[in-house]
Amino acid sequence: MKNFNYHSAKDGKEATKLASSNSAYLAGGMTTIPSMKLGLASYKDIIDIKGIKKLSGIKVSGKSITIGATTKHSDVANSKDVKKAIPSLAQLAEGIGDPAVRNRGTIGGSIANNDPAADYPSACIALDAVIHTSSRKIDAEKFFTGMFETALKKGELIEAVEFKIPEKSSYQKHPNPASRYAIVGVYVAKNKNEVNVAVTGAKSCVYNDEKLSKALSKDFSTSAVNAINVSSSGMNSDIHASAEYRASLVATYAKKAVDAC
Amino acid sequence: MASLVGSRVERKEDKKFLTGKGRYTADITLAHQTHAVFVRSPHARAQIKKVDITKASKSPGVVAILTGKDLADDKIGGLIAGWKIVSEDGSDMKVPAHPALATDIVNYVGDHVAVVIAETLEDAKNAAELVNVDYKILKAVVETEKAMDSDAIHKDIPKNLCYDWLLGDRSKTKAAFDSADKIVKIDLRNNRLIPNAMEPRASIGDYNPSTEEITLYTANQNPHLTRLVISAFNAVAPEHKFRVVAPDVGGGFGSKIYPYSEDVVIAWAAKKIQRPVKWVAERTESFLSDCHGRDHVTHAELAVKSDGTVVGLKVDTIANLGGYASLFATVTPTYLYGPLVLGLYNIPAAYCNVKAVYTNTAPVDAYRGAGRPEATYMIERLMSKAAMELGMDQVDFRRKNFIKQFPHQQALVHNIDSGDYDAHLDKALEIADYKGFAKRKSDSESKGKLRGIGFSTYIEACGIAPSAAVMSLGAGVGLWESAEVRFNPTGNVTVFTGAHSHGQGHDTVFAQIVGDKLGVALENVEVVHGDTDKGPFGMGTYGSRSLAVGGTAIDKACDKIIAKGKRVAAKMLEASESDVDFKDGEFIVAKSNKKKTIGEIAFACYLPGQYGEIKSPLPEGDEPGLKETAFYDPINFSFPAGTHICEVEIDPETGETKLDKYSAVDDFGTIMNPMIVEGQVHGGVAQGVGQALYENAHYDETGQLVTASYMDYTMPRADNFPELKIDYTCTPATSNPLGAKGCGEAGAIAAPPAVMNAVVDAIGTDISMPATAEKVWNACKNLKKTNSKAA
Amino acid sequence: MKKITLEVNGKPVVKEIPDNTLLSSFLRETLNLTGTHVGCDTSQCGACVVHVNGKSIKSCTALATDVEGSKITTIEGLASNGKMHPMQEAFKKMHGLQCGFCTPGMVMSAVDLLQNKKNPSEKEIRDWLEGNICRCTGYHNIVKAVKEAASKM
User: Fold this and answer.
1) Does domain B293-464+636-790 fall into CATH 3.40.30.10?
2) What residues contact residue C149 under an 8 Å CB cut-off, 6+ apart?
3) Of these four, A14, B106, C42, C103, which has the most CB atoms within 10 Å of its CB?
């Protein structure tokens, strides 16, 4: 791993001030550190944001849950508030990586990285999340812009993610047998008037499956899913799953999610 | 005295591992050590036009950068293939040159081009990036079945063919097939696996300018053989000036049998730069350059009478050796495979033809089971298919063809000394609750799931062994084993073995044997292995041989100790030697109360005279000391066998296969420590299940290894398994006095066909390993289509 | 270079280290605590699991600089007064280890499990150990060892 200057930022201001075109924020480091170790990335400055108190914690209001960017997966998984308000979100966090990863990895890190097979981005899309950053608020649907790409500008720091509380919801995933990342993950959230179906793992970036969302908005049942032909067009194809298989999994896991709601 | 042998004795070696005191090669730090990083080929096949180290040499911290040219200048030899195979036409196998660092051509991604040695690992890594290798990329040969029709990758090896080998009798087999009522055919692929011992390989070279001796610390399964090969063939140092230490080794599974390029280079480099050199593989390097396992493509046919009697077997296999012929690569798909294709059945006529090919992939060599899993997978899949095509019950069909009388000379090589195949089959049916299967199947169906049951009644040849036999078949070494039992003057015992423990529990099991035999408490027996400067030359651990061969050598050395002890006791007790009995650690004169403990006798052996109270004259002709050495060369292989039964439940919607039940009944002959044996079975089964359902080394068409990390190579994990049910039957081996048959590989041999037969039973169609969710989903989908068309 | 102050296995440690030092390297090379092993480069195998402030983490994927001020427990620090921790005892009793390489990480993960769930079911144990790869035992006796330890703790 190439050397860098390590900084532990006390507050958001210090963190953003330290940021440059050759720096990275470090929270759990679950992606940043392995990328640096494997020589896929190197930085001049690593800005540790774990020490910034304001960035961590879970707050519930009547309609939403706001989770600080450096809140760990294990904290979300074990949070009574989350379990009560959006149990599927706690479940999603419980299913990320393994316990040691969940004790380090953070929600902000996960969405900033926007791995096409990560779990959290699907929650953001399905639960109409708003990403609070050091300079603005970004709607989830505008946040995830492509494979490992987000709307974040250089140095912009995620502060928190605000999730809308749905009537009911469920996240179901088919894990990659090797890495345990999602080959396909489907997040179904039912609100009063509409249903959101977010899919991760299937394409180069998380997306809202509009056909499924529309069909389930009209008729929240597995038969509504059966009536949809999920197209494999644009889906990922690799040694673990072909596009056709992924398309089939999207339908299957959407049904599982509807059943589990 | 309670018997140690046969008891669930907790392991002596556990405490150090559990408290973080294990000492693996990577844990060793030597004063003034340097760090090595290998520059590896990023291409599967390329010509090396130039290796330019100018820029790299100037990088901070660099001590030396060595290339294939430096090796050649120092006349360091290449890696060898240690077992000569002769083709059916009488010609010798063809083996390419395999320099430890490539000089003009690279043959797989990860092949070794140069070594960068620097003050720190980071310095070495940074400099390695600056080594500029000019490659002319050539079209890679990747696929096993296409290798013979592709460009020859090595000079003077046409069709990439190492050998075209035949075992058996083609004309007798043809006659058997002509007499058959039915021919059952199968096409199989034995997937390529990456051993993945959890400790990545590591080597440290240390040169002592005072004694002119090189010490190589290395993660290796047989340090003596490694020293012999690196001395005799690579000419790094003469044997008496070369010490190889394999300290704690974190798993091997075959992949650490061989001296690798890194071992040769690190040992040589340490002398060259006159400083210790340390190299520790990163996991990706392990994926790329550890020897892989299996990789066969096979067509087989079984000739059967309509009453279910098997009369003949034909097997045609193409085996992939990878880019070079590794140490045991040539024997793994021949003598470790061919003889076993008959399984534990009485098949009077057979042949097995193997064509071994070179491809631009990592070398393939022995991996847990080595040849026997491939053979077992073939015959057990074929037997299941035959039963299905004949409309016979899986169990009845197998039973009908079992070998029933022992010893049994098989149609190919082996003379099987003992066994009772009905016994383990019956017991397995019971513990697997075979009777309840139909109900479980209908329960699964009511949930929309498919359930299948699979059988594997297997045999293996273990305790590899008899030197006369293996050398007549081309082995470059005899496969005996050595032991030295050293009674120390104060009554404790040090046992040196030529076997090597890297998880098997030798420290405990060998101590159990010695403890019982000599009547010494377990804590007073220390087993020493893994250092060529300590014990006698030995052949190491692989092929489930350590107990049957190494354990017997220890047993024999103990016999010699007892024999001398009797002579000494007779003299001391003024009795006739023939009147002295040895039991539970005491030498007793018959019909008297005169006795001496073995500790007293040991003490006497070291104080052979009279001094005050001490009166211990040695018998005339006996030397002082109490230390005996034995070399044991068995008369035959041993033949463990057993029945494994697997049940899977499949979700046709997702294709996911859940391993629901797994039952194994094995006959390992006499068992020394059931706890350790069970552990060996569990681990073997997990690796076999891994092969069947998860693991696959995947090269793309350009020869890039796609599965080069745990992100893409599926390792079985804790949540992939149910509780395994295990039991035993016992027919002792007759080829060694312990009656032991070997247990280390059984699970990896038996499990793949048991699991795959279950999957095939569930989905009703052939499918290849690994039965990944997508493959199963596809099969279920296609079957649904076919069925709806038929309806 | 950064100066870090922390507590390792109950003892205060102050060291000056390069900024890019991984916690696993710090433990193994700087402190010579070689019981923590490194088995992969992708945070998958779990051989390097240690506890930071009582929670299991993968030390190959953490910087030594960013555990400044923490209390670290490694496999070497689990036994107390020469007596092995009940989890270590249980692994020995149930033959939950063979080659020993994954063992330190496995034990540290298992200890963390019992801190979270007193009496885990077989499934909970298997799920929890998802991030610890063992090639020797088939996990069977590891699961048994964790159950045994749960019954003793």
Assistant:
1) no
2) C86, C87, C89, C90, C91, C110, C114
3) C103
User: Tens digit of pLDDT for each residue in B308-348?
Assistant: 999 999 999 999 999 999 999 999 999 999 999 999 999 99
Per CB-CB distance under 8 Å, the chain B contacts of A251 are none
User: Looking at the DSSP assignment, which residues form a beta bridge with residue A138?
Assistant: A131
Q: Could you report the per-residue pLDDT of C32-87, keeping only the tens digit for each? A: 999 999 999 899 999 999 999 999 999 999 999 999 999 999 999 999 988 999 99
Domain boundaries, chain B: 14-138+198-251+256-289, 293-464+636-790, 480-632
CA-to-CA distance for B148 and B316, rounded, in angstroms?
Answer: 14
Contact B721 C126 (CB under 8 A): yes
pLDDT, residue B2, reads 67
For C86-152, CATH number?
1.10.150.120
Residue B54, burial from CB neighbour count under 10 angstroms (0-12, 13-18, 19+): exposed
- Answer whether A104 touches C (CB < 8 Å): yes
Query: Torsions phi, psi of B678, nearest 5?
Result: -60, -40
Topology given in CATH for the domain delimited by C2-77: Ubiquitin-like (UB roll) (3.10.20)
- Residues in B closer than 8 angstroms to A181, CB to CB, are 711
User: In whole angstroms, what is the distance from residue C137 CA to residue B759 CA?
Assistant: 24
Please report the number of interchain residue pairs, chain A to chain C, with beta-carbon separation below 8 angstroms: 82
Q: Strand, helix or coil at B312?
A: strand
Contact: C103, B17; criterion CB under 8 Å: yes
Q: What is the phi/psi pair of residue C81, to 5°? A: 50, 40
User: Domain coordinates of chain C in residue numbers?
Assistant: 2-77, 86-152
Q: What are the φ/ψ torsions at residue B316 (nearest 5 degrees)? A: -125, 120
Which residues from chain A sit within 8 angstroms of residue B656, using beta carbons?
A: 174
List C-alpha distances in Å: B310 to B315, B348, B430, B743: 14, 8, 26, 28
Contact yes or no for B686 and C137 at CB 8 A: yes
Q: Is A4 on the interface with B (CB under 8 A)?
A: no
Preceding omega of A116 cis (within 30 degrees of 0)? no
Q: Which CATH number fits domain A54-164: 3.40.710.10, 3.30.70.2740, 3.30.465.10, 3.20.20.100?
A: 3.30.465.10
Asked if the domains B293-464+636-790 and B480-632 are classified in one and the same CATH topology, the answer is: yes
Closest to B753 (Cα-Cα) out of B383, B401, B450, B441: B383
Q: Tell me the chain C residues in contact with residue B197 when contact means C-beta distances shorter than 8 Å.
A: 99, 101, 135
Residue A28, helix vs strand vs coil: coil
Closest CB to C39: pick one of B15, B283, B719: B283
Measured between alpha carbons, how far is B485 from C119 in angstroms, rounded to an integer?
46
Complex prediction ipTM: 0.98
CA distance B84 to B427: 41
Out of A178, A242, A252, closest to residue B774 by CB: A242
CA A197 centroid distance within chain: 14
**Cβ contact (<8 Å) for C49 and A2?**
no
Q: What is the pLDDT of residues B533-590, one digit of tens each?
A: 998 888 888 877 888 889 999 999 999 999 999 999 999 999 999 999 999 999 999 9
Give, as one character, the DSSP assignment of residue B93: P
Neighbour subunits, B (≥3 Cβ pairs < 8 A): A, C
Minimal C-alpha gap between A225 and chain B (Å): 14
Query: Which residues from A are below 8 Å from B194, CB to CB?
Result: none
DSSP B254-286: TTTSSPPHHHHHHHHHHHHHTS-EEEE--HHHH
User: Six-digit token pair at B694?
Assistant: 């998860």
Q: Which residues, numbered 67 to 96 in chain C, qualify as contacts with chain B under a Cβ-Cβ cut-off of 8 Å?
A: 74-76, 78-79, 84, 88, 91-93, 95
Three-state secondary-structure class, residue C16: strand
